[in-house]
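chain below, 574 aa
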Amino acid sequence: MSKIKVMNEILANKIAAGEVIEKIASVVKELVENSIDAGSENIKVNLTGSGIKAIEVIDDGSGMDREDAKTAFLRHATSKIYKEDDLYFIDTLGFRGEALASIASVSEVKMSTCNGSESTYIEIKGGHIIDIRPCPERRGTSIEVSNIFYNTPARLKYLKSDATELANCTSFIERLALSHPDIAFTLTNNGKMIVKTSGSGNLHKTIHEIFGMEVSNNILEFKNVNDDFAISGYACKPHILKSNRNQMITLINNRIVRNNEINNAINDAYYTYKPEGKYPVVVLNIETDPTIVDVNIHPTKQDVKISKIDELCEMITSAIKTALYENLLIIKPLEDVSKIDETKDEIPFEEEKILIPETKNEQVFMDFQSEEVIHEQNIKSLVLYPVGLAHGTYIIAENEDGMYIIDQHAAYERINYERYMKRLAEKEVAKMNMLIPITIEFSPSEFLDLMQKKDVLTSLNIDVEEFGINTIIVKSHPTWLKEGYEEESIRKIIDLVLLLDSKFDRVKFEEKIAITLACKMSIKANMHISYEEMEYILGELVKCDNPYNCPHGRPTIIKFTIYDLEKMFKRVMD
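prediction:
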């Protein structure tokens, strides 16, 4: 008896579902992309329990007749391609004919559809048609998917939390809205509005509807074209940066795609305009001949291969860099870019002043309150005497052992880092109510993510409350934030909170806060400081637990012993 047999259709669909339907957002993606391919102008996505209980997608597209409604749930049934050559000219989001069959095999599906002349209701459970009949006419399609993975419990067990699944769905709808600004999208969860766009056809307006006013008021339009590609879109100004790549959105022929080479090209355009580890908000649309792009790599159709990728990346970098350069020329025509330290986010050095305390108990640079008196016995034996400043960056110092060169920014970073770490380690930290609260706006997905992690901010004595749509208001903060830089510091802390994952390590998180704030609040290179200021930095540096490296690992001090100096000048010979 032969061992090899052809799988039945239901089993094959369940196996395919494991690759096509990875999470709740995968179901939303497939259903909404079908609505877009059907020519819809309005698409509503209603989730129940973040989509784990039910997903409903309602559109006003072309609809289907009774025969097509039945056939649509068969594997490899599609209206997008008919022959092999069509694979080279794909201009629709879907084409594989796997999604509906896969979804129906692992869930319960109810669909009502009407093409203007014939309306059909169809109900499917686990891939089997339960009911099919006429229904009230409403042009378009309404499809409800519930009890996802009810018959594949192993898959059900690996769904994420409600909050994570909702955030994934929200993020995908945001991207779809940006890829199709001419379509009005609505996303709700348990009846609460999450995303709503107007479908105006204006990408700038859609960016405002997704990311809010702060981003939409600080973006630059860019364009570039050659014989193979036409690129266009919007890129944020350098002071609007994020801590992850989630807002770097790439579209090819209005399809959302992932490509590391394109992301690197975008980052290259911001070189010298942003610090390492920060990423811009960019919406990039690439129009090209479909034969240049291969989207048939993975069932999700987001990973793509592009011919002439080097040429495309060069175009992207050039277009964004030109937009940034021209904008900065207009705003700051007299600014000498060579004097800007890469670690400082567009704030001229001259704006930052160092206050030298007259007594040990007064507040110092960071405005730490109740500065602890350091007793004589705690001061390290190393004593440095400043001699001068080289290039506005390096303090030259000496003692009986030799000569020292100190990087003033790295040294001050170390001082501030250890102060922040001490404050963060304190069990009881005073907080300050703000006279004028800070209002911060987010994209819907960022807002949902932050609300899930709100307790982390509370533990840091940063009190936030919801304040309108996708907006928070900050009413208090810990007293150790630098005076005058409270909002900037809070925004940086929030960026770090948004990066937190399920493996939350409090120690590492606090260290990241200390490193981030210490870098930002330190004096910079190319900043000429006084003799008294040099004395203060050297005096504080030698009290640090590790005065020899900044928090990033760079050296703060280079030492030349007297022997080293005499050897270099041939005063001694080996």
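The longest strand covers residues 431-441. The mean pLDDT is 81.
thats it, cya
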